[in-house]
Design brief:
Blueprint (H helix, E strand, L loop, with lengths): L8 E9 L3 H8 L5 E6 L4 E9 L4 H14 L8 E6 L4 H8 L3 E3 L3 E4 L11 E4 L12 H13 L5 E5 L5 H8 L4 E6 L2 H13 L6 E5 L10 E7 L2 H13 L1 E13 L3 H10 L2 E9 L2 E8 L3
Parallel strand pairs: 6-7, 8-9, 8-11, 9-10, 11-12
Antiparallel strand pairs: 1-3, 1-4, 2-3, 5-6, 12-14, 13-14
Helix pairs in contact: 7-8
């Protein structure tokens, strides 16, 4: 198939160990329409990542192979590319979405067709957005920490908001105002749709940008689900947006990286009070000194 004949959607198909399925799904499916998971045998599952036909699918395949190799897995034969000809991928993707419990109080409903909350408070996201639905351990760690940390009327920052689900959750936990920022324009659009779907636009504002826009904002708290290098490079800027005694909930960090992130926070005047883990992922619960 030539580039001119390329199907409007392409599938990146990757065999992954079931034990790290969510982690690899978040890596391999970044910026995709979505990811379908087919349960396999002998501890392996199949991820089917839907990408636009004009995407650099070959580069995505190489990145997927690198993700497998980084975990000591031979990528040979485990990564394939194929066109999606039938135009039914979106329908199949949406049909596969199911309610997802998150934290102690909430359940994410990633489709209008999802039913059954199990007595939990529903949070809705717009299907077809691969910016974080709650499947990944770091999102779950952030959600549980927000439930414990948010106080009624408090002012929060959701740094690297992605789908916007954590900003909505903070508002539902009682925050009076939440600023959600992301450097990806597509994520900003997705987050705005999530805010509207949950009717919290009176308390959650979504902006394109990063932490530098909030310097001196004197916020009560910040939740940041981003990678460890960001924290290492910009701990001081994060501190500058918090009031004395303000909370920082930082995930997207591997447990093996937590000590170095905590050291960077310490140098910036942020004291880490607790580190919680889920699998190989961690969240640091910290507070700006000076209260």
């Amino acid at each position: 198939m030539t580039s001119r004949e390329r199907a409007p959607w392409m599938a990146l198909v990757v065999d992954v160990p079931a034990a790290v399925e969510e982690e690899l799904s978040a890596e391999i499916g970044s910026d995709a329409l979505g990811v379908l998971v087919e349960r396999g045998a002998k501890g392996w599952n199949v991820l089917e990542v839907c990408l636009p036909g004009d995407a650099d699918v070959a580069a995505r395949a190489r990145a997927a192979e690198a993700s497998l190799a980084a975990r000591g897995l031979s990528p040979g034969g485990r990564v394939r590319i194929r066109p999606i000809e039938d135009g039914r991928w979106v329908e199949r993707y949406r049909a596969a979405l199911v309610p997802l419990p998150i934290g102690d109080r909430f359940v994410v409903l990633p489709s209008p067709r999802c039913e059954g909350t199990g007595g939990r408070e529903p949070l809705r996201i717009v299907p077809g957005r691969a910016f974080g639905t709650g499947e990944h351990p770091t999102t779950r760690l952030c959600a549980a920490a927000l439930e414990r940390a948010v106080r009624s009327g408090s002012r929060w920052l959701d740094l690297g908001t992605g789908s916007g689900i954590l900003a909505v959750l903070a508002a539902r936990c009682g925050a009076g105002a939440v600023v959600a920022v992301d450097v990806d324009p597509d994520a900003v659009e997705a987050a705005r749709e999530t805010v509207l779907a949950n009717a919290v636009e009176d308390r959650v504002s979504v902006r394109l940008g990063s932490v530098e826009a909030l310097a001196g904002a004197d916020l009560d708290g910040c939740v940041a689900n981003v990678a460890a290098p960001f924290f290492l490079a910009r701990a001081g800027e994060i501190a500058s947006c918090l009031r004395a005694g303000g909370s920082l909930l930082s995930s997207g960090v591997l447990a093996a990286e937590a000590a170095s992130v905590a050291a960077a926070f310490e140098d910036a005047g942020i004291e880490t009070e607790e580190t919680r883990t889920e699998g190989e992922w961690a969240i640091l619960v910290s507070r700006r000194r000076g209260a």
